[in-house]
Amino acid sequence: MKNRIRELRKSKNITQEELSKQVGVSRQSIIAIESGKYNPSIELAYHISKSFNCTIEEVFIFEEGRM
After folding, report:
1. Which of 3, 12, 29, 43 is the most buried if burial means most Cβ atoms within 10 Å?
2. Is residue 66 part of a domain?
3. Is residue 48 part of a domain?
4. Residue 65 lies in a domain
5. Which ranges carry the HTH cro/C1-type domain (predicted)?
């Protein structure tokens, strides 16, 4: 699943560390999610999207046929 976290973070001028503190995970988790190595739980995806005042669908892009 692709995401726009890096783009949104940069537009809000916040670091990976700041985002990780806002959503309650480690910086390493944010790095893994941003790079597509890890898909967050629905709860974490919700918290990340809310930190950007976006919907989950605006942050995470589901790709058909990729599970």
Report:
1. 3
2. no
3. yes
4. no
5. 5-59
Q: Are 2 and 59 in contact (CB under 8 A)?
A: no
Count structural domains, the chain: 1
Half-sphere exposure of 8 (CA within 13 A, CB side): 19
CATH number at residue 34: 1.10.260.40
Residue 25 near residue 44 (C-beta atoms within 8 A): yes
Residue corresponding to tokens 């597509």: 36
Buried b (16+ CB within 10 A) or exposed e, 14-46: eebeebbeebebeeebbeebbeeeeebeeebbe
Q: What is the pLDDT of residues 11-55, one digit of tens each?
A: 999 999 999 999 999 999 999 999 999 999 999 999 999 999 999
